[in-house]
Amino acid sequence: MKKGLLWYDDNPERDLVEKIERATRRYEQKFGAQPDVCYVHPNTLKGNGKLQKIDDVRVTSLTSMLRHHFWVGREEQRAG
User: Fold this and answer.
1) DSSP sequence for 3-31
2) How does pLDDT run across 23-65, given as a tens digit for each residue?
3) CB 3.0–4.6 Å: which of 20, 40, 51, 79 could bond 44 by disulfide?
4) Residue 42 falls within a domain, yes or no?
5) Nearest to 48, CA basis, from 11, 7, 19
6) Is residue 79 assigned to a domain?
7) How big is the chain by its Cα radius of gyration, in Å?
């Protein structure tokens, strides 16, 4: 991902789906395109079953992500 949006949301009253939806809406406002991936801290997905997609956004963990942070953007298309 060459450009993305780092979103922070530690509000305990919002569930994971709502947090990611808010982050993706902001990405769309800022960049004029829908993101297709959201990286989260590995512990974020614990207790959320096998959540893998929200709308058309793939949700995946990344060990370098901080808790309560959501990195949304568009994945690079690799040639070859």
Assistant:
1) SEEEEE---TTS-HHHHHHHHHHHHHHHH
2) 999 999 999 999 999 999 999 888 766 678 888 999 999 999 9
3) 40
4) yes
5) 19
6) no
7) 12
Closest CA to 45 of 26, 27, 28, 58: 58
* Whether 74 contacts 1, CB under 8 Å: yes
3-state secondary structure of 56: coil
Cα–Cα separations (whole angstroms), residue 14 to 20, 62, 64, 76: 10, 21, 23, 30
Q: How many domains does the chain have?
A: 1
The pTM for the full model equals 0.87
Place of tokens 């997905």: 45
Domain carrying residue 38: 4-73
